[in-house]
């Protein structure tokens, strides 16, 4: 497959957008966990570049794009600098993380699919490259932070939108509408993710059930402290402060709620 200059330019715009947003999210996660400058830079870079590095390594088509094109490292550094200088907390952080994540899924799914098409691969490998590119950075970040990768617990918010985006791209390419397909696919993924987020519970096949939640999230629920399901450990400090400031009576009540919720969840998982 040969791509025109217009498609090539659009490709880089989309991929740089993903790199910038992912680096900012990763840097903010590191900042909230009080990492030093080395840890901060590592998390920001791995969040923004790991997916593309894994994809390019699989394709085995020379050095990875992130190593040959300085624009990727410059963009990732800019995103890390934004995270370092701008403090995002509370609702502002939750909204930014959510929308930044779902936007990157779409743009990177397009990038992965286009890479597969350029390598003249069939549809199935193109879908695989789309998923790897879209989720690789987040997965490697979670592994580095010793978390269960969200890839395994939030598939409907990550993998499914990437697949849908890739399918749209492949279908449009089949009709020689590459540029239009790139734009449509990049927009479709976040729309689907938002639809699942706000309306998925209405459909049984879209519901997420029986997922073991982190302990700090369970304790936070029992104490009435808000915890972010997508980034549960980022709120560990909030739960710790709530425990320190709670009276003995409040702790006993929270313990009762925690045990009740645990029994209920395990009972539901059996049935």
TrEMBL record:
Membrane-traversing stretches: 12-30, 37-54, 66-86, 98-116, 122-145, 157-175, 181-200
Keywords of the record: Cell membrane, Membrane, Transmembrane, Transmembrane helix
Matching InterPro entries: Gly_transporter
Composition-biased stretches (Basic and acidic residues): 226-241
Subcellular location as annotated: Cell membrane
Start and end residues of each stretch annotated as Disordered: 224-245
Membrane topology: Multi-pass membrane protein
GO annotations of cellular component type: plasma membrane
Residue stretches making up the Glycine transporter domain: 13-85, 99-173
Domain of life: Bacteria
Primary localisation category: membrane
Family: Belongs to the UPF0126 family.
Annotated protein name in UniProt: Trimeric intracellular cation channel family protein
Species for this entry: Corynebacterium wankanglinii
